[in-house]
Specification:
By secondary structure, this protein is α/β, with parallel strands linked by helices. It has eleven helices and 16 strands.
């Protein structure tokens, strides 16, 4: 099968188109004929080696964390799916590889594709929607009337997180440039701050939850807007010792992550704010719940651009530019 791979970590090199074996189908796996794949900043961070401490992949590595397609083979213990089912998924870590013609995925990480979405729209959903769900529902336990600050509202995670927070009855603020205001108003955002000419820390206060996806400086400013007992949840780091325990990291990785997050954890504790790091996990059951929200019109995908398979490198470069509104997708079939 054709696939886009990396042979080593590199900041400058692109992905190489290569012939790779069709993945082996284990007892609990489904083999998906890939129609479309979502592109995420995570793909770029893995390519450059930014996550090699916590995700030490073997090379050559097929990138890609989002898929929509059709099941063409099932393992002998598979119960939930059958051949010809249209599905979507975020494959588990160490089993990624959606920039390819086929991928084998554990059935527990897969869900039936929402009936009202195209393959390209469906491929834009899993990673960002699961991230939003795990931040807002699992970690923040969001409640009606709470005030939530979601950074970078027009990005892949932002566009879905805003819709999810509004579904649960939260009051939502976000940051964006003026050209994204119309989109964010459509999604139901209550307060939009133009980051080019206004500082959010001077406009917001007494917030319950912050979803941080930006740099260290923004992370520290976010502490200032939270009320006592508030939650600061970061998807961009720094990782914490609790996260190191979750992934059973070796002792030296635990030490490094403890040092990296020491400063922000101390500042959060001094303000009686809970700081945590989230690295989203594959989860088919949560995707099923998101499917219900999508099919009922509560959440809609926001697609920026669809690239053909042969232009996968251009798609990744477009995501790295930070200019996309919503998600970038590769059409493979």
């Amino acid at each position: 099968m054709k696939a886009f791979v990396i042979n080593k970590y590199s900041k400058n090199g692109g992905l190489q188109l290569a012939e790779m074996p069709v993945p082996e189908v284990k007892d609990n796996d489904v083999l998906v004929d890939v129609y479309a794949a979502g592109v995420n900043l995570l793909d770029s961070k893995i390519k450059t080696g930014e996550f090699k401490l916590i995700l030490p992949y073997k090379m050559p590595l097929i990138l890609g964390h989002d898929v929509a397609g059709v099941i063409v083979k099932v393992g002998k213990k598979v119960k939930k799916f059958k051949i010809s089912d249209e599905v979507y998924a975020r494959p588990a870590d160490y089993r990624i590889g959606t920039f390819a013609e086929f991928i084998a995925i554990d059935e527990n990480d897969v869900a039936l594709k929402p009936k009202n979405l195209s393959m390209e729209e469906a491929a834009s959903i899993p990673l960002v929607a699961l991230t939003a769900w795990q931040v807002l529902v699992e970690k923040a336990q969001i409640k009606e009337g709470q005030k939530v600050f979601i950074q970078a509202g027009s990005g892949g995670v932002g566009t879905i997180a805003i819709q999810l927070a509004k579904h649960f009855g939260a009051i939502v603020a976000t940051t964006a440039s003026a050209k994204s205001f119309d989109l964010l108003n459509e999604l139901g955002t209550d307060l939009i701050i133009d980051y080019k000419n206004s500082d959010f820390e001077n406009r917001l206060n007494n917030y319950d939850v912050v979803l941080n996806s930006q740099d260290q400086k923004t992370l520290e400013k976010s502490l200032e807007i939270l009320k006592s007992g508030g939650k600061l949840i970061s998807i961009s780091g720094p990782p914490t010792p609790d996260f190191a325990k979750e992934i059973n990291a070796p002792w030296f990785v635990k030490m490094i992550l403890s040092l990296l997050s020491f400063g922000i954890r101390k500042k959060a504790k001094n303000k009686n704010v809970e700081y945590s790091f989230l690295f989203m996990k594959a989860n088919g059951d949560q995707l099923d719940k998101l499917t219900q929200l999508i099919e009922s019109g509560k959440i809609k995908p926001v697609l920026d651009k669809v690239f053909p398979f042969e232009k996968t490198n251009e798609a990744l470069a477009h995501v790295e530019s930070g200019r996309s509104k919503g998600k970038v997708v590769i059409r493979i079939k």
